[in-house]
Amino acid sequence: MEESSVNVLYDLVEYMERERKRLLIATAIVLLLVPLALTLNLLGFFLMTKKILFADSEISRTVYRTGKSLIPPYFIISLNALTSIALVFLGIKNLLFLKSWGKKLGKIENIEKKIYEEVIKDDDIVEED
Q1: Each residue's pLDDT tens digit, 75-86
Q2: What keywords appear on the UniProt entry (predicted)?
Q3: DSSP symbols for 39-90
């Protein structure tokens, strides 16, 4: 059985609405988890640094007191923060895109309603004749 193009378009619009909702949920979850992960990373880093500073090891005292470690701690913090800011920026950009997508789907739904109402009116006129 061959489907009409109207039915295919209705199915496509419904599919796009479902996918939009799924993307909104995924984006919201990521936007909530990124700052939480950054906070936990920073907390863990500071706790680890504090533990190393107070360790009795000669290497740890030398590296952290002279500041001659291979990777500077503030570089790691900055890289982590920049990555988190970039992810939040992309998430907000994605939300704005999904918002515009929702407006376009709303316009399509309004057109569908108008077409449906016109078809019903035409059927009523034909039945009255």
Answers
A1: 777 888 888 889
A2: Membrane, Transmembrane, Transmembrane helix
A3: HHHHHHHHHHHHHHHT---HHHHHHHHHT--SS-HHHHHHHHHHHHHHHHHH
If one compares 44 and 72, the residue with the highest pLDDT of the two is 44
Q: pLDDT tens across 94-104, in order?
A: 999 999 988 88
- Spatial neighbors of 81 by CB under 8 A, at least 6 apart, are 38
Q: Is the pLDDT of residue 49 over 50?
A: yes
Residue spans per domain, the chain: 5-128
The confidence score (pLDDT) of residue 113 equals 82
108 Cβ partners below 8 Å, 6+ apart? 13
| Among 12, 37, 126, CA closest to 87 | 37
- Give the global pTM: 0.63
Find all residues with CB under 8 Å of 73, minimum gap 6, and list them. 45, 49
Phi then psi for residue 57, to 5 deg, are -70, 140
